[in-house]
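re the bet — no i am not wrong, look at it urself. input seq straight from the record:
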Amino acid sequence: KKAFSQPDHYVDRRRQISQTDHLLLLECLAISLSQPSLQRSLTERHGAALVRDIQRYLDGNLEQSPGLDDIAEAFHVSRRHLTRLFAQHTGESVLAYVQRIRMERVKNLLQHTLMSVLEIANSVGYESPSHLALVFRRVLGCSPDEFRRNANR
């Protein structure tokens, strides 16, 4: 700063400005490289927010049964990025999350409504009541009807 403020006829100003620009660039790079945790935390926060948005989307669209490609397209990310990011932030795959949410909703509807298994299957995105019953038995070890009977005891 002092060198610029004092007139000196023997100093090449263009060369001095060029060297100063170079030094400023190097200083900015050194600062940005010394704080990678700031970049990472911003990326992680963005990823976590995106995953929360995806979870809300899935929770509200279970009956449409969106596929991975549909979800990726809705959030303008690749299918690969979607699956990796979702697993990183939730510890489960998108499909495992959808199945878990569906089973929670099915259990709730079986316990608290008089809806038929067909109506419940349609409301949570299963193609048929037999498919729902198959998944339900695999996950919970009993049929939806058995679960309803035991829950209402």
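see?? The chain has a mean pLDDT of 84. told u. also Residues 49 and 89 are 10 Å apart (CA to CA). so pay up
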